[in-house]
Amino acid sequence: MMVRFSVLAAAAALAATVATPVLAAGEAVELKSRDWPHSGIVGTYQRDSVQRGMQVYKEVCAACHSLRFISFRNLVQIGFTEEQAKAIAAEFEVPADPNEDGDTFDSDGARLMRPAALFDTFPSPFPNDIAARAANGGALPPDLSLMVKARPNGENYMYSLLTGYEDPPADFEMAEGMNYNAYFPGHQIAMAAPLFDEGVEYADGTPATVEQMAYDVTNFLAWAAEPNLEDRHRIGLRVVIFLVILSFLLYATKRKVWADLH
Fold it and tell me: What is the SS3 assignment for 230?
């Protein structure tokens, strides 16, 4: 539990660093609001949306962002079969173990790689942070495992951010290489708009609008940040029911005991 808390705190600190505005933040902007099926004391993840969100992550986000706290075997929790999870894992490559000679690089100096397996976590697209910064104009793409938990109202913030790219006002001065986003602090963000209509082709035929993809990938990242949420909700509900029944029994016992004494 302490390890999980430490990781969450680190992610929050990272998100705060990434979200530092280039210019003054200016006026606060009210976030867009969506109904999230996993919210509330009995909320559950919407499996079809989370699966579509995994597809958006794999085809769009994984080119820059890692998901290092989620293993491929965890995908069975959101409705994928083990065979489907294996097939998804095999689309990624991870560093291979040393070969029979103890080498981790081939004769050309390239790192030996192998297809990912169920026990592997989603790999980073870059070998290290220096390479990641070099490929992204100096900006370090954050890991997305806990990103939804790194901000208050995280789901609505993530959804607003992904759908908030637009042309800047005529009197707004943009820094070189930055992109205007109505919901990012300071309205300038290094990441270009990642989502475009029909940017992916959903296997279930759902129209892939920017809003739909943003909603789905936010649901997926909410699950990634808290994959045990449904179990926690179930346990909490059972505890509440137990306490209600126990309270009734204790009250009835008290009435009975005091009735006999009088």
Answer: helix
